[in-house]
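Summarise what follows for lecture notes:
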Amino acid sequence: MARSGLQRGFNQGILQGVKTGLGMAGQRTGYAGGLTDGTANMDKLQDPVLLTGVKTGLGMGSARTGFAGGITDGTAYSTKLQDPVLLTGVKKPRIYCNADNVTTNTGLVITLTDLIASGFTLTNALGTNNTPDLDTRSIFNLRNSLDFNNAVASLYPTPAFNLNGKTEYSVMMVIKIDPATGYIFQVQDLLNPGSLVLQVTNTSQTIRSTFYGGQPGSLTTSVYETAGISQAERQDWMILTVKCRLSQPGGVGSEQEVYINGTLKEQLVSSNFNVITTTMAATSTFVIGNDREDFGSQGGNIHLGAFLMTDYWLNESEQLRLENYFRDYYGHKF
């Protein structure tokens, strides 16, 4: 609008809409006419139905619409949600299972179905006492969970697999922790570097992560505990992500990271960790829940919704997309 036209409009009171307002015309005239007339290139009224892409959000529809539509549409080159089932090639997880896909053998043995055609399942063939209980509709979105409610309840992969030759791995779990000491997850090979022990150390639900480095016959450890977690977080379902590697590309302390709901939550307890042996051995295996091998058993203390493991260190983008998938799947922001 030229300066003379603008001045003429204000001085003579003929500027449409913004001067007439609602008092001089109907609501449609006041908003559609008053706020947009005379400024054809700048709409001042937005029908929310017409919003697309990242502007749709969760407020205008279901969680699925918000996550699958709003967060990813319009950003075709950078998906913000990653279904682990769709990962292929070197990014394919080693194993991915959840408590919504299980089979039972006469009610005594629960086997979590392999969802990514990896050839592995999670099971316990040691009898009723060793098998966690299935709790149906116990998580958000009416999803199932497994209750590791005694001192020997555990799951392990079948057939057995190892991390021979690998240098790093990541674990992501949807879990809830009871106020009791016990094990969460272990990569067991205390003769060689690369072992990991995740455990709850007290009734305040502190999670301790111990990762082993050094060399065979002379192992070193990096020990961290979760910090800055509210009581509400400790007592609720969470996404627990742990990343470990036999290297320190970012200096001391960069050999492992522990996240709760996508936020780094760790403080150093002790460390003499060093890197001598840089690959893992064929004897490594893993157990979810209370131990059946090297460390003895403790009381049951976890509930498991989903378990995912990769044989690589998840970068920030990969981690975020997988966490967003679980937020979508369980219908909860975590």
